[in-house]
Amino acid sequence: MAAVGQCSLAAQWRSVSLTHVEYQAGDFSGQVLAYLSLGPIFILIGFMTLIIFKRELHTISFLGGLIVNEGVNWLIKNIIREPRPCEGAHTTVTTEYGLPSSHSQFMWFFSVYAFLFLYLRMHQTNNARCLDLLWRHILSVCLVTGALLVSYSRVYLLYHTWSQVAYGGVVGCVMAIAWFAFTQEILTPLFPRIAAWPISEFLLIRDTSLIPNILWFEYTVTRAEARNRQRKLGTKLQ
């Protein structure tokens, strides 16, 4: 049972457990899309987890950009005040207005920023160039696919119109490009100073902006340290 284009207020809507996202009862596609539309929540949880364990300034800046992006979305919505489609169809909505779609804006900000980070910020330092490019391409396709699915889910579930989703995507892309440029040109030169602050040292906040590929760096350093400790342990046991 497709939900697109059906504004019947008599339809029975069910919410995904512990969330406000609703789908029409008996619509399996709508249920799947309802879970997919929770992508921004999962991403925010992932960011908080990553910051707690990594405490890296660029990651903190990325999250800051997402928060600013949400603020811009709220501001635009309350200036334009375009209503959502099928008003009254859903029992709970976080905001009254629908232009631009916050889910679409969030996902496209995240996808475009991550795309720029992958291709402009990270540089491979080992010899596996082809493999490195392959996983970047695959990840980029996954990012775009995720953004498209979440955007489509908002229309399918009658939370937004196509134009509201499209404008959200455009604003998200523009914000991602602007925030990436701001981070690279303004914030990144300040990261060494910020990392040297006493509060940063106390919280173990670090700056890895000068390391081309942090994944490869952490892998090689960890492997070398493990081998060094293993040799020392072997020497003590002799």
Automatic annotation (TrEMBL):
Keyword Hydrolase carried by entry: yes
Keyword Chloroplast: no
Transmembrane annotation, as ranges: 32-53, 106-122, 134-153, 165-183
GO MF annotations, alphabetized: dolichyldiphosphatase activity
Topological relation to the membrane, as annotated: Multi-pass membrane protein
GO biological process, one term: lipid biosynthetic process
One GO location term (cellular component): endoplasmic reticulum membrane
EC number: 3.6.1.43
Subcellular location: Endoplasmic reticulum membrane
InterPro entries: Dolichyldiphosphatase_PAP2, PAP2/HPO, PAP2/HPO_sf
Pfam families: PAP2 (PF01569)
Reactions catalysed, as given in the entry: a di-trans,poly-cis-dolichyl diphosphate + H2O = a di-trans,poly-cis-dolichyl phosphate + phosphate + H(+)
Function: Required for efficient N-glycosylation. Necessary for maintaining optimal levels of dolichol-linked oligosaccharides. Hydrolyzes dolichyl pyrophosphate at a very high rate and dolichyl monophosphate at a much lower rate. Does not act on phosphatidate.
Protein's recorded name: Dolichyldiphosphatase
Species of provenance: Pleurodeles waltl
The organism's taxonomic lineage, starting at the top: Eukaryota, Metazoa, Chordata, Craniata, Vertebrata
